[in-house]
Amino acid sequence: MNRPATPREPLLSVRELRVDVGTTRVLRSVGFDVDAGELVVLMGANGSGKSTLALALAGHPRYQVAGQARLAGQDLLAMPVEARARAGLFLSLQAPPDIPGVRNNLFIRTALNAQRAARGDSEIDAYDFLGQAKAGAARLGLPEAMLARPVNEGFSGGERKRNELLQLALLKPRVALLDEIDSGLDVDGVRALVDLVGSMRREGTAFVVVSHYLQLIESLAPDRVLRLHEGCIAETGGVELARAIAAQGYAASRSREAEPVEAR
Ligand SMILES: Nc1ncnc2c1ncn2[C@@H]1O[C@H](COP(=O)(O)OP(=O)(O)OP(=O)(O)O)[C@@H](O)[C@H]1O
Ligand SMILES: [Mg+2]
After folding, report:
1. Which residue's C-alpha comes closest to atom 16 of ligand 1?
2. For the chain, where are the alpha helices, taking DSSP H only?
3. What residues does ligand 1 touch, defined as CB less than 6 Å away?
4. Which side of the chain, N or C, has fewer Cβ within a 10 Å radius?
């Protein structure tokens, strides 16, 4: 039986997003979509507002936000930060902070149980969780002892990023925003990152990845590459846009704006 195709909303859709911090307008009008299993790379010069975009979507109270952002049909901007997380939004911070006094495994288990409760599922068995956490740590090359330590306290830069990846792996979000997850990761860490992102995409997780590094961007095989400039998405392309930016720099990319897309 033929039925007319109903237009389907993308998993994450952002429209005319405007973000102010204090009296500064950082984002003027940002729009993009990411669907289940897709990966979008967000590039832009230092200070162009990539972290601002990620933090504003996650619900950081520092930002005044207007416009529209929808996650699986829900109005993200109307939701408090914890409801956004429960709805399946995950943010890996550019500079993950220490949380003294909070054990890493308890932190992740508590977050996981809050999400399960929101779905009407029972709490995960503590031994099952520990098994998953140990397997995740092994996959990400994180020493098991770090599960029992306070979150990020005394962790090296790369260990913090691996710990963000552990949270990602265990929480299994619907949409993951990864803000410079590769900075500080060694070659094995980057390989583990690419492997984890690839397998989670196959399971349907959508990714928005902020990165400055072409090698990582190429390894991630993005569906789209976006360039943020002056508070807007100034360019959209495939991996060739990331290659052009890497080869020419952001100053040159600005001069490309006037050129037709085919000429890039
Ligand atoms: N509290 C604040 N007051 C004023 N300006 C701010 C404040 N917080 C951030 N900004 C400015 O907002 C702009 C965007 O910052 P953001 O951290 O989003 O950039 P970014 O694209 O992530 O850069 P990077 O590549 O260096 O991480 C910067 O110019 C920054 O100085
Ligand atoms: Mg940033």
Report:
1. 49
2. 50-58, 81-86, 104-118, 126-139, 157-171, 187-202, 214-220, 239-256
3. 21-22, 24, 26, 44, 46-52, 94
4. N
